[in-house]
Design goal:
Blueprint: E1 2-10, E2 13-19, H1 22-32, E3 38-43, E4 46-47, H2 48-60, H3 66-71, H4 73-80, E5 88-92, H5 94-99, H6 108-118, E6 122-124, H7 125-134, H8 138-142, H9 144-153, E7 157-161, E8 163-168, E9 177-182, E10 192-196, E11 203-207, E12 221-225, H10 239-247, H11 253-266, E13 275-281, H12 287-300, E14 305-309, H13 312-325, E15 331-334, E16 347-351, E17 362-367, H14 379-387, E18 389-399, H15 404-411, E19 416-420, E20 433-436, H16 449-460, E21 464-468, H17 475-485, E22 491-493, H18 501-510, E23 515-518, E24 531-536, H19 545-552, E25 566-570, H20 575-593
Parallel strand pairs: 13-18, 13-19, 14-16, 14-17, 15-16, 17-18, 20-25, 21-23, 21-24, 22-23, 24-25
Antiparallel strand pairs: 1-2, 1-3, 1-4, 3-5, 6-12, 7-12, 8-9, 10-11
Helix pairs in contact: 1-9, 2-4, 10-11, 11-12, 19-20
Length: about 625
């Protein structure tokens, strides 16, 4: 889009600005200074990206007066990376302003409502217009440039162009190189592409990484609503107040200790950057119930809470649970295609992609499954998450298998953390058993004898079977092999390419499918009361220790069947298998040491090894 660059000569200073609506700036400067200012408008008008580049260069200079700036214009343009001719200057005085026919005046009440609703939001121009229409702000929508410029001058919004230009040195002795970054998603030059533009001089860059949320290019307008300051620092609550907040949720001893630690952390004073607390809780520990006291505390203080998760199905599952837990509170649910994306709420429940539309908005940000796809190792989503919390707020990071860098930080006491080493039913985690098995590609249409025998024992005890394989192409092969042996039971397979995956998962939960063969697509989020887990080709590079722990976590989740079985079937032993078993053992030992287990006399069992001719000796 096009904007106008100008210099406001106020007593004792020259201030450079760009404007979407010059009439608003006339009114602001002349009324603020009692008519003592003069505005120097540069002609011709510029694209937003050019104006932002020039503005940054002008603000870095001394700029004692307009004439000197014009004499040094070539140097200013060179620093901004632009090739523009010396502009013409048109000066407007207070007398010119009085004689000028002004635009329709701003409705103050509508402006204030717009500013309040925009607080903590990040929108493109198109999103802003839909947002204003949704909230019935018709005057602001029709004259959006005027209302937005008024909010900018009042310090209630920030306006930026879509692609930021940076000058960085590759080495300290080399010349600065120009690099680019999308201001919305943080993506660098590697995902920038050039296109012809009606507004910019020459080509314009656009970001391909976040294009599904609308194109952002060099001259696109991004609007950041200035977040409200919140209720400030609140010191640690008394023991009785903390106990009252925790006691109403019926938590287990391990959950109670984690909740107490979390509430203590939230009560600490912070300035400059948000705090971070890692909650390292085993699969099935009841993380959702554990965060209720944190949400409760923030709501009691009049603060805003965000719960972000990488997957839409988790968002839809959590929504009714939060509504039951916090009746009377407004809960906004955001995901691709959500009808509530323009709403505000006390609690916002969102997929991580939707965080791109917020900026310094929330006092407490809870990010679930930080190790899960697509959040894990996705710079765009992590950039979005880094911007949504207020500087005085806090992040809570939830995971059963936290990424290695967070584990290292926690081990060095550089990251506040708390461990929940036991499930809500207070029984030990099932320790995987090992089965020797040749590679799947060498199968001849039938199950290995030891795998078949172990599956038969699971079926005989009334369990349903989760069978995990590393690759999608292996699903059907394993399904056929299992069906050939267990003809009387329903055996199905599913993967990310299965259009009926949701239906099959429902049927598995209902017990209509006895054995489900799948990939890591179902390593999370599916709970069946009586389940045993078989991980075939557990030595595959596809299965790192985190994936193995998550898949093993499908067993023993129910209090009616806490001792479900887990089997690692593989041709060889890997470090990933060893790390997974070691972590499970460590959590069981920690749970026992802290007295969290129901039966304190129940010694941790060594991982047993299913026996027959092809079984490994001694396990992993």
């Amino acid at each position: 889009m096009k904007v106008r660059l100008y210099a406001a000569a106020v007593p004792g200073r020259l201030k450079w600005r760009f404007t979407l609506n010059i009439d608003i700036d006339f009114a602001y400067w002349f009324e603020q200074t009692g008519g003592k200012a003069s505005l120097h408008l540069l002609e011709p008008v510029l694209s937003l990206s050019e104006a932002c580049e020039l503005l940054a260069a002008l603000e870095r200079g001394s700029n004692p007066n307009l004439n000197q700036v014009l004499r040094e214009w070539s140097a200013v343009c060179s620093e901004a990376g632009l090739l523009l001719g010396t502009p013409e200057v048109r000066t407007v005085t207070y007398a010119d302003y009085v004689a000028r026919r002004r635009a329709e005046p701003i409705d103050v009440q509508e402006l204030l409502k717009m500013e309040r609703l925009l607080a903590g939001r990040c929108f493109s121009k198109e999103e802003l217009l839909r947002f204003l229409e949704h909230h019935g702000l018709e005057r602001a929508r029709k004259a959006w440039t005027g209302y937005l410029q008024a909010a900018l001058l009042r310090g209630q919004v920030e306006l930026h162009n879509g692609v930021e230009s940076l000058r960085k040195r590759r080495y300290f002795w080399s010349k600065p190189e120009r690099r680019y970054r999308c201001r919305r998603c943080g993506t660098g030059s590697e995902r920038m592409y050039r296109t012809d533009c009606l507004y910019c001089t020459g080509e314009c860059l656009y970001c391909e990484e976040c294009i599904t949320m609308g194109r952002i290019q060099s001259c696109s307008l991004l609007i950041y609503g200035t977040a409200q300051t919140g209720n400030g620092y609140v010191s640690a609550r008394t023991a009785s107040e903390t106990a009252a907040i925790i006691g109403k949720w019926g938590l287990s001893p391990a959950q109670t200790e984690a909740a107490r630690s979390g509430l203590s952390y939230l009560s600490q004073e912070r300035a400059g950057e948000p705090g971070r607390l890692l909650i390292w809780a085993v699969t099935g520990a009841g993380k959702t119930e554990m965060i209720f006291p944190f949400i409760d505390r923030e709501l009691l203080l009049g603060r805003r809470v965000l719960i972000a998760t990488p997957r839409r199905d988790v968002v839809l599952e959590l929504q009714p649970r939060l509504k039951r837990a916090f009746p009377g509170r407004t809960i906004v649910t955001l995901y691709g295609g959500s009808e509530e994306r323009w709403e505000h709420g006390d609690i916002t429940l969102s997929t991580t992609h939707q965080l791109l539309r917020f900026h310094r908005c929330f006092d407490l940000v809870i990010i679930d499954e930080i190790d899960a796809y697509p959040y894990h190792n996705n710079p765009m989503l992590q950039y979005a998450a880094e911007r949504v919390c207020k500087r005085t707020g806090a992040y809570m990071l939830l995971s059963a298998t936290p990424p290695a860098h967070l584990v290292r930080l926690a081990a060095r006491n550089r990251l506040a953390h708390v461990k929940v080493p036991v499930r809500f039913h207070r029984h030990p985690l099932p320790i995987p058993q090992t089965l020797q098995m040749k590679e799947l590609m060498k199968w001849k249409g039938s199950l290995p004898g030891n795998v078949k025998a172990a599956m038969q024992r699971s079926i005989d005890r009334g369990a349903q079977l989760f069978v995990f394989v590393p690759k999608i192409r292996e699903v059907e092969k394993v399904v056929e092999a299992i069906r050939s042996h267990f003809t009387e039971y329903a055996v199905e397979g599913t993967s990310s390419q299965d259009s009926q995956r949701a239906d099959r998962v429902v049927r598995f939960r209902q017990g209509d499918i006895r054995i489900l063969v799948t990939t890591t697509i179902l390593e999370r989020g599916v709970t069946v009361p009586r389940t045993d887990v078989f991980i075939l080709q557990a030595d595959s590079a596809t299965f790192d220790s985190a994936a193995l722990i998550q898949m093993a976590g499908r067993a023993g989740r129910s209090k009616d069947d806490p001792n479900g079985k887990v089997f690692f079937a593989a041709a060889g032993r890997t470090d990933s298998q060893a790390r997974a078993i070691r972590q499970i053992r460590q959590m069981n030992r920690l749970a026992k040491r802290k007295g969290y287990l129901l039966n304190r006399n129940n010694e941790e069992e060594e991982p047993t090894t299913a026996s027959n001719d092809s079984t490994t000796k001694g396990g992993i």
